Amino acid sequence: MNKEQLHRFISESTGNERNICQIYAIKDGKTVYDDCWHGFRTEDAMNVNSVTKGVVALLVGITLDKGDIKSVDQKVMDFFPEYQVKRGERTIYDVTIRHLLTMTAPYKGRSEPWKKVCTSEDWTLTILDYLGGRSGITGEFRYATLGIQILVGIIERATGEKCIDFANRNLFEPLGLPGRILHGGSSKEDQFDFLMNKNPRKVEWYADPQGTVTAGWGLCMSARDMAVLGMLVSDDGLYNGKSIISKEYLREMTKPKLRLGERFGNMNYGYLWYKPYDDREVYAAIGDSGNIIYVNRELKVSVGITGTFKPRIFDRVDLIEQSILPAVG
């Protein structure tokens, strides 16, 4: 399949590919594919859902590199000394940053408290109320979009600045990408529109009433933004010869920590990044609706894909490897 055939395939798709808005691919530092659908342009942004988690993992690495966080084994409660722990709660004192990064942190209750958190004045402190529980630290994988919010709170406590400012100054702008702006509305209706609206968005990042950005969803990026971030991972944290994030952290971030189940394609999991294959240097930050940063260290290729909201689309690794990589050579 060549580039023209790929464009037509997506344009005419009646299946999972029909929600794709942008595809952008970089190989050996050069743009090799840039295409758009549904009226999108290269510079337009889209809420990339859980790809946001992968970006937060990068920000944790930068915070570690700067020494503001001492170790991923540092206790979560070190950063919230004023937080009033619920009576009888003990497990929360044992939870570390590593538990959050690997989705092995324990939480109370069977489901995430979306309404409680997303209608509160401080989303980070509210989700802390659900961290811990009677079962203790079990090492069990528990996918928790709201729980990751605690990582953003830690970044802000550790660095002394808002996460969006830290991200712009240390990640987006050094890569030549536009700085993100806050999307400050937090009503139920606004959150629904933010998820479901199929029009291009500004380069914004959803935030709670405190101006603290969401960690598990809500970052708006273009496919180009994501491909550039992917090349940073592929190139061991270097951009134009300058180190943005350490090679050591990126290697640890993408190193398998857990084997996931069928729901997650039986992939390996590192620090909020997936490793689809045991024996290949391929990694991905994956969000609902097929949003993805795909990194292939072997081929020095990075691909970003954005898509409007469409349920039950998890990853596009197969599409990339079967259709996009052959088209870019």
SSE topology sketch:
Blueprint: H1 3-11, E1 20-27, E2 30-36, E3 46-47, H2 51-65, H3 97-101, H4 114-118, H5 123-128, H6 149-159, H7 163-172, E4 181-183, H8 188-196, E5 204-206, E6 220-221, H9 223-234, E7 238-239, E8 242-243, H10 247-254, E9 258-259, E10 268-269, E11 274-275, E12 282-286, E13 292-296, E14 301-307, H11 317-328
Parallel strand pairs: 4-5
Antiparallel strand pairs: 1-2, 1-14, 3-6, 7-8, 9-10, 10-11, 12-13, 13-14
Helix pairs in contact: 2-6
Description:
With 329 residues, the protein is of the alpha+beta class. The protein is 31% helix and 16% strand. It is built from 11 helices and 14 strands. The chain has helices at residues 3-11, 51-65, 97-101, 114-118, 123-128, 149-159, 163-172, 188-196, 223-234, 247-254, 317-328; strands at 20-27, 30-36, 46-47, 181-183, 204-206, 220-221, 238-239, 242-243, 258-259, 268-269, 274-275, 282-286, 292-296, 301-307. The strands form 5 sheets. The protein has a 5-stranded antiparallel β-sheet, with helices on both faces. It has a 3-stranded antiparallel β-sheet with strand order 9-10-11, with no helix packed on it. The chain has a two-stranded antiparallel sheet with strand order 3-6. Helix 2 (51-65) runs parallel beside helix 6. The longest helix is centred in the N-terminal third of the chain and has 15 residues, at 51-65. The protein starts with a helix and ends with a helix. The mean pLDDT is 95.
